[in-house]
Design goal:
Phosphoenolpyruvate Carboxykinase, domain 1; 604 residues; alpha/beta; Phosphoenolpyruvate Carboxykinase, domain 3; nine-stranded mixed β-sheet; seven-stranded mixed β-sheet; single chain
Length: 604
């Protein structure tokens, strides 16, 4: 159930969406004591929703309450129980029974275990919700840094967590008459918090509806964080439209937030409806948050809106090149299918890729790593491939097996980047993201556990389970590194006597043909099945601007062969059942030898 916001009203103090997410305006609902917390509208609402749930299930606790409170109407029971919980903050169960005998039926020595169970299960019901709080700077700020607001925000997040833990423990002790033997400091407050501010930016008339939506300036998360989206795969491609009616961005600003991010060198304003808050805020692990100076009085390179009504949209996802104002605009329709994090990531990167094509760079769907070896040499490796081809898995296997030779493996990008050719003919690689959105299915369990304290997990119990984890500083992804090796990730071919784990091309045309064909065995991360072909393994901008992309690709591959870049393909076998870990590991073994040989040439 979604609490609808009044059309002309200001923000409500909280929203509960689909009985799974709660969004709290901490400024409007601040509680400084257990008593105020239990008197809050939010606590009452959550308790009523919990009661409805146990009533539907006819749990033993519900049946006991109905037996002991026969004179109360069904809708009156939650209010009665909340009143008892409020009193248990100030008095013990024994004291309440002594004060008024009417409480004996629920708080007698043998009976109170039912209220204890109700309190425990209500607490667990609350913790199973995805919980978000925000604190908005009370005025349009012109300050680049505001330490006071940051400190107040962090304190607010800590305060809510401590207040809920303390309130739960006080009631538990009042019922049991003793202190707990084990204190568990569970994340009982917000899963993610955000500090908001309204900042003036140069918006074209086309996007005037967005001017009052606040920007996320700071994010606060308590990992490991597990989120569940109603969709777990991405479908279709991103269609370019040639006209942009203003009604496409007609929206209620009180239901929207803006997460301003740096996508490589580009500044992108990512707007999302509150129903998309889980996936929207998970961007904090994937992209660098834009600085104040990137926003104030500036026009962004791109704007993306997630959760528009879509009444005039022909597809779930569309984008528009506003050449007049120099802005790429992406749209994602409000639908259950688009609640998958992959839509956020890929729409943002599609706009980046189109912008790169317009600037003469070759967008790359792949991964790149800068390797420094203990012998003093180095090698920069790029692996190109579509979703599920084995890019990240191969580089992670390389990290694992080559530790004795490598002193550092710096990830430049894990999914999307670009290649530029400088005036001297040198081939340079650039990244886009500070994090990675990787499949748990194809990674060793050790990787997930090693990264658990920083990760956001999506649907870990389902196929295509994913985690979002930060991996590289922003300065590294935009630095620009010379490319030594470029490999296409072939995930569908078995190895035999004629096929090697790594094969390098001698002819430029042979390389172009393999990269252009973009063959792979689909892994179920999208709606594709079987052996499929994607133009340059990159459906995110390349097919939409195919003519321009073709020219840039030929020019870039020509520059790579002239510069001596080693261009080839690897057979990861990731799409073949049973080779999910063995395949990338075999490639990594061969690749480590190539890197060692190349590093000897690159010493110094």
């Amino acid at each position: 159930m979604h609490r609808e916001l009044p059309k002309k009203a200001s923000k409500m103090p909280y929203s509960i969406i689909n009985d799974s997410k709660v969004i709290i305006d901490y400024t409007a609902i601040f509680c400084g004591s257990p008593g105020k917390l239990l008197k809050s509208e939010l606590f009452m609402d959550v308790t009523r929703r919990f009661y409805v749930q146990i009533a539907k299930k006819k749990t033993p606790t519900y049946l006991y309450l109905r037996e002991k409170l026969p004179n109360l109407k069904e809708e009156e029971v939650p209010d009665y129980i909340v009143n008892i919980l409020r009193m248990l903050v100030a008095y013990t169960a024994d004291e309440l029974v002594e004060m008024d005998g009417k409480y004996t039926s629920l708080l007698g020595v043998k009976e109170r275990e039912w209220i204890f169970s109700f309190r425990r299960d209500l607490y667990n019901f609350w913790r199973r919700l995805e919980r978000f709080i925000f604190l908005e700077v009370p005025k349009k700020t012109g300050h680049k840094h505001d330490e006071l607001h940051h400190a107040h925000f962090v304190h607010a997040c800590d305060n809510l967590r401590s207040l809920i833990l303390d309130t739960n423990r006080i009631i538990g002790e009042s019922l049991s008459g003793k202190e707990p033997k084990v204190y568990r400091q569970l994340p009982a407050g917000s899963n993610i918090g955000m500090l908001l501010a309204k900042i003036e930016w140069k918006y074209p008339a086309l996007l005037a509806h967005l001017k009052d939506i606040p920007f996320v300036r700071l994010a606060f998360i308590e990992p490991p964080l597990i989120l569940y989206s109603r969709s777990n795969t991405r479908k279709g491609t991103f269609q370019e439209i040639t006209e942009f009616p203003p009604e496409k961005v007609a929206l209620n600003p009180h239901e929207w937030f803006c997460f301003p991010v740096k996508v490589g060198e580009l500044t992108t304003f990512v707007y999302f409806h509150q129903a998309y808050i889980s996936t929207g805020l998970a961007l904090c692990n994937l992209f660098e948050i834009a600085e104040f100076n990137d926003i104030s009085q500036k026009t962004p390179d791109a704007v993306v809106l997630f959760g528009v009504s879509g009444e005039t949209m022909g597809e779930l996802t569309e984008f528009y090149d506003d050449q007049k104002n120099g802005i790429m605009i992406g749209l994602v329709k409000h639908a259950m299918q688009t609640e998958y994090f992959g839509y956020f990531k890929k729409m943002i990167l599609t706009l980046h890729n189109v912008a790169m094509i317009k600037r003469g760079r070759l967008p790359v769907h792949g991964a790149m790593v800068c390797i420094k070896l203990r012998n003093g040499g180095s090698a920069n490796v790029m692996v190109v491939g579509d979703s599920g081809a084995g890019k990240s898995e191969t580089l992670e296997a390389l990290r694992t097996i080559a530790d004795e030779h490598f002193s550092e493996m710096k990830i430049i990008f894990d999914d999307m980047g670009s290649i530029a050719v400088d005036a001297q003919g040198q081939v340079i690689g650039y990244g886009t993201e500070i994090g990675a959105f990787v499949r748990l299915d194809d990674l060793s369990p050790k990787y997930a556990y090693d990264e658990i304290d920083r990760s956001i997990f999506f649907n870990p119990d389902k196929k295509n389970a994913r985690l979002v984890v930060p991996i590289s500083p922003y300065k590294d992804i935009v630095h620009g590194y010379p490319v030594d090796i470029v490999l296409y990730a072939n995930n569908y071919e078995h190895l035999d006597e004629k096929q090697l784990a790594i094969e390098f091309f001698k002819q430029e045309r042979d390389a172009l043909d393999v990269f252009k064909t973009g063959a792979r065995l689909a892994k179920g991360t999208t709606d594709e099945r079987g052996l499929v072909h994607t133009y340059f393994a990159n459906p995110f901008g390349a097919p939409q601007r195919k003519e321009e992309h073709e020219k840039i690709a030929e020019r870039t591959f020509s520059a790579m062969f002239k510069a001596g870049v080693k261009v080839g393909q690897i057979r990861t076998r990731l799409g073949i059942e049973g080779f999910e870990q063995e395949g990338p590991r075999a490639v990594a073994m061969e690749l480590s030898k190539v890197v060692l040989e190349l590093s000897e040439k690159n010493k110094g």
